[in-house]
């Protein structure tokens, strides 16, 4: 049984690479709830009001996916539960959650992590982190075109996205739940360019080979 988890900022290419990995390795893909997420547009319209609710929504849907993925055979998930705390911490630092919400969220997250320890597989086998610069992130967000994520619609997102990248750097350095690999999302256009896709898939397969997983 091999479980891969993707990480990276908004629009880094996690969902795209998840689909490619699943196809290449013949594994099942699990996607974050985005288009069917009723809270996400509310959050972008009024972050202070909906930060806590959105976080609970994501934690709940993420936990459903993880429970399914860590029971089964070979799976790949398009975002890790370890990033949920990053998002919430950042929003809390921006004053979008009060102390009671922060305390309740941390307790609930800790409680869920305890549950994971009791599962047949406690951690993913490999974290695949896609690193992107601010410019690449914006290019991809523009390309995907979700209206509520556009900096033209909401200029305050410029600061939000810069901050997010600042939080991701130490997060990746400190991540130690599993082996990890960093993909250069600025350099490799693995969506449009088959050669780049081959190189990135090669990097992931080499790592899995080195770990004795394939
Ligand atoms: N390496 C890449 N080269 C070119 N285009 C890319 C690359 N990665 C992603 N894209 C494009 O950027 C957009 C965002 O990609 P994707 O939805 O996979 O990102 P994500 O990391 O899953 O985002 P989110 O965190 O918002 O769920 C899509 O339009 C996708 O086609
Ligand atoms: N506030 C907040 N907390 C999270 O845990 C979280 N996870 C994802 N997202 C947002 C980023 C993309 O817009 C969109 C798709 O990833 O959802 C989050 N937003």
UniProtKB/TrEMBL annotation:
Q: Which GO terms describe its molecular function?
A: ATP binding; deoxynucleoside kinase activity
Write out the entry's keywords from A to Z: ATP-binding, Kinase, Nucleotide-binding, Transferase
Q: Which Gene3D superfamilies match?
A: P-loop containing nucleotide triphosphate hydrolases (3.40.50.300)
Name the positions where substrate binds.
32, 44, 55, 79, 84, 149
Q: Does the keyword Iron apply?
A: no
Q: Which CDD domains match?
A: dNK
Q: Name one GO cellular component term.
A: cytoplasm
Q: Where on this chain does ATP bind?
A: 8-16, 140-144
- Sorted alphabetically, which InterPro entries does this protein's record hold? DCK/DGK (IPR002624), Deoxyribonucleoside_kinase (IPR050566), DNK_dom (IPR031314), P-loop_NTPase (IPR027417)
Where does the record place the catalytic residues? 78 (proton acceptor)
For whether the record's keyword set contains ATP-binding, the answer is yes
Location of the Deoxynucleoside kinase domain? 5-206
Q: Sorted alphabetically, which PANTHER family does this protein's record hold?
A: DEOXYADENOSINE KINASE, DEOXYNUCLEOSIDE KINASE
Entry's family note: Belongs to the DCK/DGK family.
Protein name (record): Deoxyguanosine kinase
